[in-house]
Inverse folding.
């Protein structure tokens, strides 16, 4: 009998809202949206946690510039505080080495992280999801009952092709979708917005490709000052974040 | 004290199972601890005792038996089998501690000792599980 499932709900009992930042497609800026969302909420004075569940290619720690920290061990593990965010990632344990996990291992890691992490009381827990609708997405749906989803796409038809599969499965399961952010926009096109209207999914707005963003990576204070952040904030206003 | 978190999950799962089975009291819980998890058994037992005290009378008479399960790892590439003990000495303290928290990072920090592949399976000796619960209706 697997005992860890029984404790997850209790571990998340004092977390008011759980938002999974997801996409069917890789490289659309999920981690950047998730990290920036966490920074934005922390700046507004909320108690925020960020869980990077991209076990193969974690990147939130690079975006936030996390170095030389390890969770504190106290009746479980307590995530270190980074820029006012309780931040947990597999990198504390993998030392950022290549992580060749198979599906069952992914599920075990997610179960372990969710059952031993003491988040305490949080207003928001943001989950940076890996691309696709594989193990991690299914596990988050299975283990975290009160989760909501924020999806990210680029303006590309290719990206939306994969993202719409995620959106369809979330709709089929009647899970709350906060909306979709269109990232890395380069031309004026209403393609994404029009497609989302057809799917009856809220379009939160677009973020223009920000050439200055790369220079801010690794520094939370600089990220807060980027055009990316300014435009993301506009999108987030539509859902009162 | 990450043993505490695992002990809490054992007690929560046992109580949940007793509700399902309509048990008035739980008399015995048998637990398996995988070698890979490198649990400090003293701390784990202490945690179980302390958590038990905070629960209702259902657990007052419970006898908890803990068994350690030896690890078996098997390479998918060359089918070689080995145990965590065989490779433990090659790990540094940080790697060993990481495996203690998340046993699956064994795939990150170790390789098949015969062919060097990272593609192996944990056949036995992973995590903490409840093997049986007894009680009275």
């Amino acid at each position: 009998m697997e005992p860890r499932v029984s404790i997850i709900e209790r571990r998340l009992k004092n977390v008011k809202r759980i938002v999974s930042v997801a996409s069917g497609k890789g490289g659309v800026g999920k981690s950047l949206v998730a990290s920036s969302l966490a920074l934005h909420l922390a700046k507004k004075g909320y108690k925020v946690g960020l869980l990077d569940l991209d076990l193969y290619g974690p990147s939130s720690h690079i975006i936030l510039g996390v170095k030389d920290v390890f969770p504190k061990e106290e009746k479980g593990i307590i995530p270190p505080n980074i820029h006012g965010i309780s931040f947990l990632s597999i990198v504390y344990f993998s030392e950022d080495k290549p992580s060749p996990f198979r599906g069952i291992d992914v599920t075990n890691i997610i179960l372990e992280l969710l059952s031993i992490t003491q988040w305490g009381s949080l207003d928001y827990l943001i989950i940076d999801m890996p691309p696709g609708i594989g193990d991690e997405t299914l596990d988050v749906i299975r283990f975290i009952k009160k989760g909501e989803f924020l999806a990210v796409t680029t303006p590309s038809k290719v990206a939306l092709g994969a993202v719409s599969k995620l959106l369809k499965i979330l709709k089929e399961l009647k899970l709350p979708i906060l909306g979709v952010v269109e990232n890395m926009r380069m031309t004026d096109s209403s393609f994404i917005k029009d497609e989302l209207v057809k799917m009856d999914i809220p379009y939160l707005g677009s973020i223009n490709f920000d050439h200055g963003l790369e220079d801010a990576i690794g520094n939370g204070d600089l990220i807060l000052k980027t055009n990316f952040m300014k435009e993301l904030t506009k999108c987030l206003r539509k859902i009162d974040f | 004290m990450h043993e505490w978190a695992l002990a809490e999950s054992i007690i929560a799962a046992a109580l949940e199972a007793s509700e399902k089975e309509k048990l008035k009291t739980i008399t015995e819980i048998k637990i398996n601890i995988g070698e890979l998890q490198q649990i400090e058994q003293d701390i784990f037992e202490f945690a179980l005792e302390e958590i038990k005290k905070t629960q209702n009378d259902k657990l007052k008479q419970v006898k908890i038996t803990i068994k350690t399960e030896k690890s078996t790892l098997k390479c998918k590439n060359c089918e070689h089998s080995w145990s965590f003990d065989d490779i433990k000495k090659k790990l540094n303290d940080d790697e060993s501690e990481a495996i203690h928290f998340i046993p699956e990072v064994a795939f990150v920090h170790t390789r098949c000792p015969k062919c060097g592949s990272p593609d192996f399976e944990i056949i036995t000796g992973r995590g903490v599980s409840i093997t049986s619960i007894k009680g009275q209706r």
